[in-house]
Amino acid sequence: MTQTAHPRPKPAHPLIVRLTHWIGAYAMICMILSGWQIYNASPILPFTFPHWATLGGWLAGGLAWHFAAMWLLVADGLIYLAYSLISGHLRRDILSIAPRAVARDFVAALTFRLPHEAGRYNAVQKLLYAYVLLAAIALVLTGLSIWKPVQLAPLTALFGGYDIARRIHFWLMTSIAGFLVVHLALVALVPSTLPSMILGRPLRRPAHQETQP
Amino acid sequence: MKSLLRPRLADHAGTIRALERRGLLRGALSLGALSLLAGCDLTDNDAVDKVLWAMSRWNDRVQAFLFNPNRLAPTYPASAITRPFPFNAYYGIDEVRTVDPEDWRLEVSGLVTETRPWSLADLRALPQEGQITRHICVEGWSAIGAWSGVPFRTFLTRIGADLRARYVGFRCFDDYMTSIDMATALHPQTILALDFTGAPLPPAYGAPVKLRVPTKLGFKNPKYIAALWVTNTYPGGYWEDQGYNWFSGS
Questions:
Q1: Is residue B25 part of a domain?
Q2: Which fold has domain A15-202?
Q3: Pick from A109, A172, A209, B212: CA 20 to 30 A from residue B2's CA?
Q4: How many cross-chain Cβ pairs, A to B, lie less than 8 Å apart?
Q5: Residue A178 is inside which H or E element, if any?
Q6: Nearest one of B149, B154, B120 to B211, comparing CA atoms
C-alpha cells in the first residue's frame, strides 16, 4: 500500500485536539496537586491531602506551581476552545447532546454494552466532556476571583465573596478529580481509545480500510 | 538559586526555616508524581526551580499591570469584624516581641529628604484614617479587621520621599522584612496603622505600628515596623526570599 494511492484516513482526533488534551491534562494535574498543597496550609474540611500526593514541597512551592501552571492551562484551554468553536468540533461533537441518547448510552455504559467508535463521542462522553469544559472554565473564574479579590472584586462578589468563592473553587476541583477517575476507568475498560488519542488512529487500521481501492 | 522544595520538618520550626532559607524547591519527594509525568529528572530540581522563579517574576509584572491605583478594597460594617482576629507570624504568639511605646522610633532612609526618626506622638499628630477591610492570608484563610492610622501616602509626602522610586522596604524589630511597590504604597487604603478596632494596636497585631495594605496578602503587611526606606533596589523580604510571590496583590 502506498500513501499516494491510499491517502491517510482522517485521524480519529485532530492533532490540535490531541495536543491540547495532553498539555491540558498535564496542566490540570499540576493545578490539582499544587492546589492540594495550598489547601493543606489552611484546610476548609477536617482533613488534609497526604504530603506525597501534593506538588511543590511546601506552601511557597505549591503556590509557585499553581501560578505557573495556570498560564499553561489557560493558554491551552483558549487554543482548544478557539479551535473547537471555529472548526465546529464543539457544536458537532460535544454540545450535540440529546437527552434520550444520554439515557440510552448511560444504561448501555452501566451494562458494559456502550458502543465506542474512535473519534466519535457517545452521549455519555459528550455529557462528561461538556461538564469538564464548563467546570474548568468555572475553576479558572473562581481561581481568578480568589487570586484578585480586590482588582476583580465584582467577579468575587458574583461568587458570593472571597470565602465562598474559595469553597466553590475547591468543590469544582473535586468534581474534576472525580471526572478524572471516571475518565481513566473508561479508558481502562476500552483501552483501544488510548492509541487514537495519542497517534490519532488505532494501533492497527480496520481491515476494510486496507482493502478499499 | 534558591529552591522551592523543602522537607516537611521545616514547616514547624522557625529556626530550621531560617537555616533553610535557600529555596523554592525543598523536599523533592512530592515532586515525584509530576516529574514522572513530565519525564524530567528527579535530581535536576534546579531547572524546575528556575522556571518557577521566572514565572513568579512574570506574575509580579502581570500583577503590577493589573493593579488599579484607584480600585478600593471592599469595606465592611463593624458587625463583620472577625473576633477574635487571628494571630499570625513566622513564630508562635508566646514569642511576640514588644517595645516601650515611648522609646520606639521609626527610622526613615533612602530616597527621602527628611531622615529624622518618628515617634508615636509624631505619627499621631498626622491626619488619621480608618478602614474595615478583609485581611487575606497567603495560606488561604481570611479575617475582617478594623485598622486606623496615617495614610501612607501622607507619610511618604511628609518625609519627602521620591514618589517615582520603585520600592519601599520595611525592617521590623521581630527580624521580619518585606517590601512593596510604590504604586501600592501610594494607594489610598495603604496606611501606617496605629490602632486596631479603636484601641492602640496590641502586641499580637504588630504594636506599635504596622503597615495595613488591603490590596496585598497578609505577609505583605509588616508588623512591629522599626525602619523603612525608599529605594530603586529590589529589597526582597523574609518570605519573598524563600519563594512567596513578591507582588502578592489581591
A1: yes
A2: Fumarate Reductase Cytochrome B subunit (1.20.950)
A3: B212
A4: 125
A5: helix A162-189
A6: B149
pLDDT in tens, A150-160: 999 999 999 99
Nearest neighbour of A65 by CB, restricted to B52, B67, B250: B52
Give residue A2's pLDDT: 44
Cβ of A150 under 8 Å from any chain B Cβ? yes
A37: which chain B residues are within 8 Å (Cβ-Cβ)? 30
| Alpha-carbon span A141 to A151, nearest angstrom | 13
Question: B42, B66, B90: which is the final residue of a domain?
Answer: B66
pLDDT digits (tens, 9 = 90+) for B138-171: 999 999 999 999 999 999 999 999 999 999 999 9
Are residues B40 and B118 both part of a single domain?
no
CA pair distance B12, B199, nearest whole angstrom: 32
Structural domain span for residue B186: 78-242
pLDDT value for A201: 81
Chain A neighbors of B34, CB-CB under 8 A:
29-30, 33, 55
Question: Could you give the 3-state DSSP secondary structure of residue B120?
Answer: helix
**ipTM surpasses 0.90:** no
Distance from CA of B128 to the nearest CA of A (A): 23
Option in B38, B55, B249 nearest A64 (CB): B55
* Domain extents in chain A: 15-202
Helix (H, G, I), strand (E, B) or coil at B102: coil
Work out the average pLDDT over B46-73.
95
CB-CB under 8 Å, A149 with B26: no
Task: Look up the pTM and report it.
Answer: 0.87
Q: Which of B41, B66, B91 is the C-terminal boundary of a domain?
A: B66
Greatest CA separation for chain B:
62
Is A166 at the interface with chain B, CB within 8 A? yes
